[in-house]
Amino acid sequence: MRKITKPPPTIISDQRRNTGVLCNHWRSFFPLIIRYPDETTLIPKAVSPQYIQLMPDGHLKLFVWQFEPEEWEENLDITTYGYGCNYPLICGRNSICSANRQCGCPRFGYFRPVDDTQPDMGCIEITPLTCHSTQYQDFITLNVSYVTLTADMDMVDMETCKQTCLNNCSCKAAFFQYDSNASSGECFLTSELFTIQAIYSDYYSGYNSLAFIKVQNVTSPSVSHRVARVVGSTIGTFVILLLVAIGVTTYVIHKRKRNAEIEEGYLDQLPGMPNRFSYEELTTATENFSKKVGEGGFGSVFEGNLKDGLKIAVKCLEGLSHIKKSFLAEILCGRKIFDRSEPEESWHLLFVFQKCWEQETLLDMVDKHSEDMQLHKTEVMEMMKLASWCLQTNFKRRPSMSSVVKVLEAGMNVEPHLDYNFTDLRIQETEVGDEKDVTQLSVSILSGPR
What Gene Ontology molecular function terms does this protein carry (predicted)? Predict the structure, then answer.
């Protein structure tokens, strides 16, 4: 004798069916017949223990005990009839079941699938309903049918049915059924929305059915006002920043223009300045500053030719704002302002002259870019020697002006064996009377005759 090792689950249901039982023998199993208004379902004769269970999706299924292996196995879906959309949760909550059990959401924009890969899991609201914003609620109208319900209102029109649901916070949908007169029908209100059945062209139930699904508007006026405030604040901030940027830019341009005018004024103050040329004229004359011939403290020097054939040298100053004082001093006085951060000996040309003499590189002081100087190196050297003669530390060795004129006129030569230690300005002392009495020579005596 075999026994059931896994008893069937305890089922409690208040669902009523018209059933009839045929008893063969007390030891036999009972076949069950379930009769619907237009269909009859026959449960096959039992050969082993079996039980019926109402499933969560509304299906009534028959399970049969299998001895090999020992387990309960689904044998029959008793309530399968029609298009297969007759079950409250065949497609989950808030969903529509159409032909061949195709599951979908009522309308994208208000509902979305719980799981895109499993349509039968149902749909959820994108914007949940709220009792605090009923004035922003509306209805989606669908030509569908629903599970059998008991009418909440009879002999009412469509608008009354919709308004009643709209005024009831717990109402999620209103179903309106009518025969031929839409002003008189039955209204069904529900607080839970399960699977809705689509109506097919070959389906006729004898009445017209409409579903009004309550939805919360995605953008309510309050949200619109908040968005408008945010957008307005953003635009206002942008406009203010734009105005500030325009003001700063205008100020900078005006300041630069003013500074340029001031710098031009500095140049106009220089007496004896040569003719001034525009930047375009200088660009043309130097062939866009292509031939660089030197570089100085204020910029580079380029060779050029004017329209009349005159050869010129153009110095491109690298700005005037930080060097205009030095530039003006050099032009006006013929010398530049000393930089006190440099060594003291670099302030004087004499030190450079003395150093070149000691290294026998006096020719390095001759301008290599001057053809005239390069062609008359001998005369240049003679002038250097004459200058050295005039700068002798011992004034008694300095030439007179008549001697200088004779040297310039080639009437005599510069004295040989000169002292080139010009920077050693020793103070000469003269003994007067007692050896301890020392008298410092005056400037006029130190200068001596020339």
Answer: ATP binding
Beta strands at 195-198 and 95-98: parallel, antiparallel or unpaired: parallel
pLDDT in tens, 186-238: 999 999 998 888 876 555 566 788 899 999 886 555 555 677 788 888 998 99
Alpha-helical segments (H) within 22-132: none
Reported pTM? 0.39
- Tokens 């009534």 appear where? 60
Determine if residue 315 is labeled as part of a ligand binding site. yes
Other CB atoms within 10 A of residue 250 CB? 10
Share of the chain above pLDDT 90, in %: 15
Of 189, 195, 185, the closest CA to residue 154 belongs to: 185
Indicate left, alpha or beta for 84 from its phi (over 0: left) and psi (-120 to 50: alpha).
left
Q: Running DSSP on this structure, what letter comes out for residue 180?
A: S
Strand partners, 22: none
Strand partners, 40: 35
Number of Cβ within 10 Å of residue 140's Cβ equals 15
Mark 237-246 as b/e (b = at least 16 C-beta within 10 Å). eeeeeeeeee
CA distance 193 to 199: 17
Phi, psi of 194, deg, nearest 5 = -95, -145
Ramachandran area for residue 404 (φ above 0: left; ψ -120 to 50: alpha; else beta): alpha
Helix (H, G, I), strand (E, B) or coil at 372: helix
Cis before 69? omega within 30? yes
CA distances from residue 195 to 52, 53, 104, 147, 213 in whole angstroms, order as listed: 23, 21, 10, 8, 12
> Helix, strand, coil: what percent of the chain each, to 5?
30, 25, 45
